[in-house]
Design goal:
InterPro entries: Catechol_dOase_N, Intradiol_dOase_C, Intradiol_dOase_core, Intradiol_RC_Dioxygenase. The protein is α+β, with helices and mostly antiparallel strands. It has 2 domains: 9-46; 79-286, Protocatechuate 3,4-Dioxygenase, subunit A (Sandwich), CATH 2.60.130. It contains 7 helices and 13 strands. The chain has helices at residues 10-16, 24-44, 48-64, 71-78, 81-89, 163-166, 201-208; strands spanning 127-136, 146-150, 173-177, 183-189, 194-195, 214-215, 218-224, 231-237, 256-257, 260-262, 265-266, 272-273, 277-286. The strands form 4 sheets. Strands 3-2-7-8-9 form a 5-stranded mixed sheet, with no helix packed on it. A 4-stranded mixed sheet has the order 4-1-13-10, with no helix packed on it. The protein has a two-stranded antiparallel ribbon with strand order 5-6. A hairpin with a 6-residue loop joins β7 (218-224) and β8. α1 (10-16) runs antiparallel to α2. The two termini are 39 Å apart.
């Protein structure tokens, strides 16, 4: 390698530095990354000040991240990268329920509960009754599937954003298991649209670009069953005013559902409810792993 590198020769030298990477995929990724980053810097004529600002920004993204706040995932989300990776890797088409983002608020520390449980954690709000079914692509029930679900409260906050109020207890999230007919059901409270966190470095991007930070109302699901592709998805309220301006590009027409409103009466689980409540009912279809569609 020459020690007299120029703007035109530095890229080839940096790419060549990864030539001895034993893993061919790692070598491909590193070398492509170097080429694209160098091309970007040349195209925009990146200044010293801008480079230092970018490095400081990434340091602060790391400092903001925690076990309950994934700022790097949020950064990927608002840049559209998370959705792009999902679109590249999950060609479901008509065969299965469409996937979308995991989001920054999934945590492993969630209660495992039986079907019919109230997962609200005592957080007040409009009662919500969710009923779902998990089928394979032939319409047969998938029994024993694990169904992770989580959502915000009626003010747009997740439990991990309210540690003092909830005394670090999980709420509005749970892990359920489908019955022999592929069904699952639970009670919670109705979520609301909310802003992505803007108190960190990613918020600076949102303000600088004058983008709305408001995510449309939704419920998260992560479904897993042996022999099937895992499915990470969301269900979105059909009449939400922010459906077409989702700052993380996660809303999809195929995932828009009705949050049906009901007067006080009998809920889907047979319990009497003396206040207005809402219901969501949806069927999820999983792809068997051996039939994943090629790109």
């Amino acid at each position: 390698m020459s020690i007299d590198l120029t703007e035109d020769t530095i890229t080839a030298a940096a790419v060549a530095a990864f030539d001895n990477t034993k893993d061919p995929r790692a070598r491909e990724l590193f070398q492509a990354l170097v080429r694209y980053i160098h091309d970007f810097a040349r195209e925009v004529r990146l200044t010293d000040e801008e480079w230092f600002t970018a490095m400081d920004f990434l340091v602060r993204v790391g400092q903001m991240s925690s076990p309950t706040r994934q700022e790097f995932i949020l950064l990927s989300d608002v840049l559209g990268l998370s959705v792009l990776v999902d679109l590249i890797n999950h060609h479901r088409g008509q065969f299965a329920t469409e996937s979308t983002l995991l989001g920054p608020f999934f945590i492993e520390n969630r209660p495992r509960v039986p079907n019919g449980a109230d997962i609200s954690g005592g957080v007040p709000g409009v009662p919500l009754f969710v009923t779902g079914r998990v089928l394979d692509q032939d319409g047969k029930p998938v029994a024993g599937a694990h169904v992770d679900t989580w959502h915000s409260d009626g003010d747009g906050f997740y439990d991990v954003q309210m540690p003092e109020k909830l005394h670090d207890r999980p709420a509005m999230r749970a892990l359920l298991t489908t019955d022999a007919e592929g069904r699952f059901w639970y009670r919670s409270i109705t979520p609301k649209y909310y802003p992505v966190p803007t108190d960190g470095p990613v918020g600076e991007i949102m303000r600088a670009s004058e983008r709305s930070p408001i995510r449309p109302e939704h419920i998260h699901f992560w479904l897993q069953a042996p022999g099937y592709d895992p499915l990470i998805t969301m269900l979105f309220r059909g009449d939400d005013p922010y459906l077409t301006t989702d700052p993380v590009f996660g809303a999809k027409r195929a995932l828009v559902v009705e949050f049906a409103r009901h007067a006080p009466g009998v809920a889907p689980d047979g319990t009497a409810v003396d206040v207005p409540f809402q219901t969501v009912d949806w069927t999820f279809t999983l792809l068997r792993q051996r039939t994943v569609q090629a790109a």
